[in-house]
Amino acid sequence: MNVLNFVNAFFSDSAHWHGYDGIPQRLLEHIQYSLTALAIAAAIGLPVGLLTGHTGRGGNVLAFVATAARALPSFGLLVLMFVLLGLGLLPVMIPLVVLAVPPILVTTYEAVRSVDPSPVDAARGMGMSEPRILFQVEVPVALPLILSGLRSAAIQIVSTATIAAYVSLGGLGRYIVDGLYQRDYEKVVGGATLVAVLALATLTVFWAVSRTAVSPGVRRSA
Amino acid sequence: MNGFFDIPSDLQHSWLGLIGLHLREALLPVLAGLVAALPIAQLCVRFRWLYPPVLGVTTVLYAIPSLAFFVVLIDYTGQSELTVMIPLAVYSLVVLVPAIVDGVRSVPQETLAAATAMGIGPVRRYLQVQLPIAAPAILAGLRVATVSSISLVSVGALIGNQGALGNLLADAMFYHRPVLAVNSVVTTAVLAILVDALLVLVRVLLTPWMPRGTGRRRKAAARPEPSALALKDAPR
Questions:
Q1: What is the pLDDT of residue B233?
Q2: Could you tell me which residue ranges the ABC transmembrane type-1 domain spans (chain A) (predicted)?
Q3: Chain B residues with CB inside 8 Å of A180's CB?
Q4: Distances (CA, A) of B110 to A76, B114, B115, B124
Q5: Does B149 lie at the interface with A, CB-CB under 8 angstroms?
Q6: Do A203 and B235 contact (CB within 8 A), yes or no?
Q7: What angle separates helix A2-12 from helix A185-213, to the nearest 10 degrees?
Q8: Coil, helix or strand for A22?
Q9: What one-character DSSP code corresponds to residue B10?
Q10: Distance from A149 to chain B by nearest Cα, in Å?
């Protein structure tokens, strides 16, 4: 297998493990970009999603915003921001956040919306305040779906952060873009493998989080 | 001379030509993905044990970044349109399989029993009962696949100018004309929104029995967020 040979050659070359262009350094950069983008996207998407989901208002506006944001090409946005703003972290963060907000926003909205109304009414009847209803009744029940929205956002961020290398930033995309221009397929395949492994690691993290954070009662019924 | 619609001659296309190229590179893979996804999804519905491993494989495929996918394929298919279209077809497949499986599974057992009792055979039952009822879910998946496909074609600009409208981005950097990048982003986004609207129209035409306008609450209940749906259950 051609590809497997490349993978083997890439990872067994000790030159790829040290220094500025080493795997640990690039991996760290990639994780840093991804986590920052996910944190910003969650800071925007979660509160708005929870609020609109709880009140049940603004669903149509939200769906429209999400569709519009999804239609924006990430790669195009990245190059545009780079041309307009120059080299920096901001031109990378904008497309990644635009990419990640719609899944978080829409899934959170749908998750809170679709919570069984009877426990919510019961909580209201018991005299719970609206914030307490949201955080102690609705969010625990909606958590699996909210997490799945965060998960698909995270996966998309991790695999899209590779294009940051095209506008001369770091991250694992560096190997893919450099390998492409140097006709060094070993590097390309190695970089692609690293990104895929990182994406799978992200899936595992979310699986672990949902195992620990989701209440057993909710998990069983889901 | 440096107007919005003036396309550098190295792209060998007019603005409209680029749009045509973009649509071809984006939509053919979705069609291919749909053609492949229908039998795979049907097998997954038929043999329940098949679904988790299929979902696992597709999740792994989805995790491969498009750029890496393109570049690795150059070794086999060269710097051609096919190199861009194969990954897009795979991504469409990944989004469509769960959408179709969930759609077909959501057909009530009573409906199937009624169809069988009326003497409708398995093939006709699939084509005339299951697929139409699953149509809203399938079209929701198609919308996600199409929009992401249209936006991903641009990345093809990195591999020998196969990105259609995305090639404008490379030129925006070469010639330092930001207006080209604006043109690329705006045209791609508008294209995606128009095709998306077209698919909504197709759904309305295909499902005349669905309540229109007033059925907002039912719609919200019946249709989970498709992009979440695509990766649902993935890590189990």
A1: 34
A2: 27-206
A3: 71, 74, 158-159
A4: 49, 6, 9, 17
A5: no
A6: yes
A7: 80
A8: coil
A9: G
A10: 6
First to last CA, chain B: 57
Provide the chain A residues 189-208 that lie in CB contact (below 8 A) with chain B: 189, 191-192, 195-196, 199-200, 203-204, 206-207
Q: Does A209 contact chain B (CB < 8 Å)?
A: no
Tokens 């299929």 correspond to B54
Kindly report the length of chain A: 222
Closest by alpha carbon to A53, among A154, A157, A151, A137?
Answer: A137
**For residue A135, pLDDT beyond 60:** yes
**Would the pLDDT of B142 be above 90?**
yes
- Smallest Cα distance from A172 to chain B, Å: 10
User: Alpha helices of B153-215 — where are they, by DSSP H?
Assistant: 167-174, 178-206
Report the mean per-residue pLDDT for chain A.
87
| Angstrom distance (rounded) from CA A143 to CA A213 | 8
The reply to whether B110 touches chain A by the CB within 8 Å rule is no
Cβ of A76 within 8 Å of Cβ of B154? The answer is yes
pLDDT above 50 for B230: no
Between the alpha carbon of residue A105 and those of residues A97, A114, A155, A186, B103, the distances in Å are 12, 14, 16, 39, 23
Per-residue confidence (pLDDT) for residue B232, from 0 to 100? 38
Q: What is the ipTM of this complex?
A: 0.80
Residues of B in contact with A69 (CB under 8 A): none
In order, the DSSP letters of A128-175 are: --HHHIIIIIIHHHHHHHHHHHHHHHHHHHHHHGGGGGGGT--STHHH
CB neighbour list of residue A157: distance below 8 Å, 6 or more residues apart: A34, A37, A38, A41, A96, A99, A100
The whole-angstrom separation of Cα B9 and Cα B133 is 49
Q: What are the structure tokens assigned to A6, written together?
A: 């490349």
Chain A hits for B157, CB-CB cut-off 8 Å, are 75
For residues B80 and B162, is the Cβ–Cβ distance under 8 A? yes
Whether the pLDDT of residue B212 is over 80: the answer is: no
What would the two tokens of residue B196 be?
């998306």
- What Å distances lie between residue B218 and A44, A119, B69, B165, B211, CA to CA? 27, 20, 39, 38, 9
Question: What is residue B109's DSSP assignment?
Answer: H
Q: What does pTM read for this prediction?
A: 0.83
* Cα–Cα distance, B6 to B72 (Å, whole number): 33
Contact B220 A114 (CB under 8 A): yes
Position B215 scores a pLDDT of 45
3-state helix, strand, coil in chain B (%, to 5): 80, 0, 20
